[in-house]
Design brief:
The chain has helices at 2-30, 48-71, 83-114, 116-121, 124-142, 144-147, 154-167. By secondary structure, it is an all-alpha fold. Helix 2 runs antiparallel to helix 3 (83-114) and helix 3 (83-114) runs antiparallel to helix 5 (124-142). Heme b 2 binds at residue 66.
């Protein structure tokens, strides 16, 4: 289990970041004019403004919240913002932005799937990406009840320390996570049935 923790929390973030940066660079160099989303706004405007605004406002709020919440050093706000209040703010504001994103994403996906004119120009990649974003947003919202189990902010600060260590290239970032985040199966008994 130590290897899995080290892989997922020390090594994998750099693999994912490298794939993102190198892939974006290569895509820009070799397919610059294909790097766009096909607009469907002219095909059917019904519900487009509401869905698009909900989705984009929510996703910008989520991005800004994660960026500021995870990467702002603790000393910059500790004098006026206690950790438990920061966690409550993150849960409330993040939850609100997550709900905006989820509702907007579902409305956009519904439009892509059920509007005949939009569906005619929609690619499988459009549906896949929008579906993945909706699923990822739903999974993020499902973490809120788990965050509510430790309202003192201690678990959040462990994740903040881990994220800051990863972004600033400090080795051993998983040391901020004092226990395994990967569940370990309980050892199986070697006794058979009826053994007392």
């Amino acid at each position: 289990m130590h290897f899995l923790n080290m892989f997922f929390f020390d090594i994998y973030p750099y693999i994912a970041g490298s794939v993102f940066l190198i892939g974006s660079w290569l895509r820009y160099d070799y397919g610059q004019y294909t790097w766009r989303a096909a607009s469907s706004q002219m095909l059917d405007r019904k519900g487009m403004n509401l869905a698009s605004n909900l989705f984009h406002i929510g996703i910008l709020g989520i991005f800004a919240g994660h960026f500021l919440g995870m990467l702002t050093p603790h000393w910059m706000y500790e004098a006026f913002l206690p950790v438990d209040v920061k966690q409550k703010m993150a849960m409330i504001a993040g939850g609100a932005c997550g709900v905006l994103t989820l509702v907007g994403g579902i409305l956009l996906l519904k439009r892509r799937l059920f509007s005949p004119r939009v569906r005619a120009t929609t690619t499988g990649a459009d549906i896949l990406i929008l579906s993945l974003l909706v699923i990822q947003c739903a999974l993020g919202l499902l973490t809120i009840p788990f965050s509510a189990q430790h309202m003192d902010g201690s678990e959040m600060m462990k994740l903040v320390g881990w994220a800051q260590s990863v972004v600033t290239f400090h080795g051993g970032a998983s040391a901020h996570l004092d226990r395994s985040l990967i569940p370990v199966a309980a050892p199986q008994s070697r006794r058979g049935f009826g053994a007392g």
